[in-house]
Amino acid sequence: MAPSAVTNGYGGMYLPADGSTDPELSRREERPKVLNNPAAGDVTILEQLYGTRKKMRVVMLGAGMSGLNFFKFAEEKLKNVEIICYEKNPDIGGTWYENRYPGCACDIPSVAYQFPWRTVPWTKYYSQSKEIWEYLKMVEQENNFVEKYVKLQHRIVSLSWDDGVGQWTVRVKDLVSGREFEDHADFVVDGGGVLNKWKWPDIPGLQDFKGTLLHSAQYDERTDLTGKRVALVGAGSSAVQILPNIYDKVDRVYTWVRTKIWITAGFAQNFAGRDGANFVYNEEQRRMFQNDDEYLAYRKMIEGELNQRFGFIINGTSAQKAAREFSEGEMKAKLKDRPELLEKIMPDDFYVGCRRPTPGNGYLECLAGPKTVPYTKQLGRITEKGFIDPDGNEQEVDVIICATGFDTSYKPRFPLLVNGVDKAEQWKDNPHPHVPSYLSLAYAGVPNYILYGGAYCPSAHGSFFPLIAAYVNYTIQVIEKMQIENIRSIRPKEKVVEHFMKHADTFLKRTAWTGPCSSWFKGGKKDGKPAIYPGSRLHFLRLLEKPRWEDFDIEYDQEGDMWSFMGNGFHVCERDGSDITWYMGHPKQEVDEEKVRRIMDGTKGIEVGIKR
Fold first, then answer.
1. Positions of the region Disordered (predicted)?
2. How sure is the predictor about 432, in pLDDT bands with cuts at 50, 70 and 90?
């Protein structure tokens, strides 16, 4: 049950302390001071209980899936913490609020794409973006998260840390009024995600086009494509979903497949429909979802298949060979009447998984359809009326849809200053992934800052929800340690990060991710360095269960006294009504303690004889 909460001056929510302080023990009267300790310098004994949690203010960036999960467990586990979240969009949901293009759906089965603490009976095996967003909105409304924590339509302008102050200065812009203001935080949690900053393609003349210009990440759902001539730019996950979902409506569609791609079934296809197709759950199946144990068993089956996908990423394995043979067979069957197109788009020099596998039910059939004009050469120039084709002819179109993805460079999206040095500027010319990433959740030398899904995240082979849970659990452990042990700042050691990245880069050479493909894992470059976690999801989840404190530089509130948190010699359990004999364990069944006392009271006054 969440503790009672009080609003604060910034509109955030304050999670109060647990009442563990003792007024008698925390009076500000003079107490003995230990002087001239040759090992530690002057030491002041703090009049507080060991286990007392100092007050901290946490700023959360983004109210998507990560933000919602953080709010949930912060309420349950953190005390004496003030939380405020800044979200740039008019509503929560992150990528699922923003992406509404035709056919937008998740390639992870619905039942594996939800919080384990709030499961629902989904409509389809693979859910559309609208249903996913509605689920996230339901979770938010049930918990009243926006009212308690979130400032919508507020964008982070910059973050600036000062060691002298021991806090972040957070520069924020109110996107409604245009006003900028400053906030402050003891700790920052960045849940913005990597698929967040969409970008227009770098094509000459793009902004000269006089027709309807759309990006998949900002798609106008009111757009009617009936009878229209459409140019679909891109061949990644979004384009692969868009083409079969607009094909029947349009008069003609022009599309570009510049780099070779593997088109596969969706994740966990063994539980999907025929040939890995999506399907609608029937009434019997949805009734089964009402049985918690049966639904959990089904979800564990799906998750179990997802957790076995890492095997086909390792070069030279039988799983990798089988994945390639399966995908080759699928593509050859669907393009049997277009062998010249098959030859141009099916990879022959890298394995399945080099790019994130692209589930594409119906894509190849539409690509080979009579209304589609596919190009395998780069789009040269956009005109006011359309584009110039590879033969130099102008093709007129009504609509251009750019399904060209996001800026996945991992560079900070805003100035990130530490003691006056802008890390975003400092790192911008580094080779991909640009940043000195610690386990995908922090940067070398950047204090009191955790991000979710950074460079070297295991984002290529499964649902993001278990990863979010691991990130949040890790974050809460860090904040609790800072509160209880009077820690001023905590940051990954630069040498530790250097060694981690060397290990990761060396390991990744044995994976399909280093093949000669263009992928966002590698910053869009064939010869780029992949920034994927060097192991399976299970490997990652186990590693993040407990922080490796030896990997961090830690500074304390009481300079020169890292043991100040020990306080006046008492623990909070001695004052807050907790079990003070916890170390003995607990009775296996409820015991009438009054009965025990009554029976034992009968021994009072009985003298035990001792034989001599």
1. 12-32
2. confident
- DSSP readout, 102-157? TT-B-SS-GGGSS-TTS----SBSS-BHHHHHHHHHHHHHHHTHHHHHEEESEEEE
Instruction: Say if strands 386-388 and 437-438 run parallel, antiparallel, or are unpaired.
Output: unpaired
Kindly report the pTM of this predicted structure. Answer: 0.91
The pLDDT of residue 64 is: 97
DSSP letter (8 states) at residue 280 = B
Residue 74 forms beta bridges with which residues?
none
Assess contact for 63 and 189: CB atoms under 8 A: no
Measured CA angle at 345 (ends 394, 515), to 5 deg: 125
Mean pLDDT of the chain: 90
pLDDT in tens, 108-158: 999 999 999 999 999 999 999 999 999 999 999 999 999 999 999 999 999
Per the CB < 8 A criterion, the answer to whether 161 and 418 are in contact is: yes
Q: CB count, 10 Å around CB of 450? A: 23
Q: Give the contacts of 429 (CB within 8 A, at least 6 positions apart).
A: none
Q: Token digits for 201?
A: 């393609």
Cis peptide before 433 (omega within 30 of 0): yes
Residue type for 507, please? F
Percent of the chain predicted with pLDDT > 70: 91
**Whether 442 contacts 492, CB under 8 Å:** yes
Domain assignment of residue 371, yes or no: yes
d(CA 554, CA 558): 12
pLDDT of residue 16: 56
High-pLDDT (> 90) share of the chain, %: 76
d(CA 492, CA 589): 46
Domain count, the chain: 2
Upper half-sphere CA count for residue 246 (Cβ side, 13 Å): 32
For residues 104 and 38, the model is more confident at: 104
> Can you tell me the distance from the alpha carbon of 455 to that of 460, in angstroms, rounded to the nearest whole number?
12
Alpha-carbon distance 48 to 27, whole Å? Answer: 9
Same domain, yes or no, for 185 and 139? Answer: yes
Q: Which residues, at least 6 apart from 329, have a Cβ–Cβ distance to it below 8 Å?
A: none
Bridge partners, residue 395, by sequence: 387
Question: Could you tell me how far CA 398 lies from the centroid of its own chain?
Answer: 37
Question: Residue 541 in contact with residue 464, Cβ under 8 Å?
Answer: no
- What is the Cα 18 distance to its own chain's centre? 30
CB atoms within 10 A of CB 472: 24
Range of the domain at 215: 198-262+316-350+352-405
Residues in Cβ contact with 446 at an 8 Å cutoff, skipping those fewer than 6 apart: 161, 416, 418, 423, 491, 492
Q: What's 223's domain CATH number?
A: 3.50.50.60
The pLDDT tens digits of the residues spanning 322-361 come to 999 989 999 999 999 999 999 999 999 999 999 877 667 8
Residues 214 and 68 placed together within one structural domain of the fold: no
Q: What is the pLDDT of residues 245-266, one digit of tens each?
A: 999 999 999 999 988 999 887 7
Structure tokens at 460: 């290529």
**pLDDT level of residue 27 (50, 70, 90 thresholds):** very low
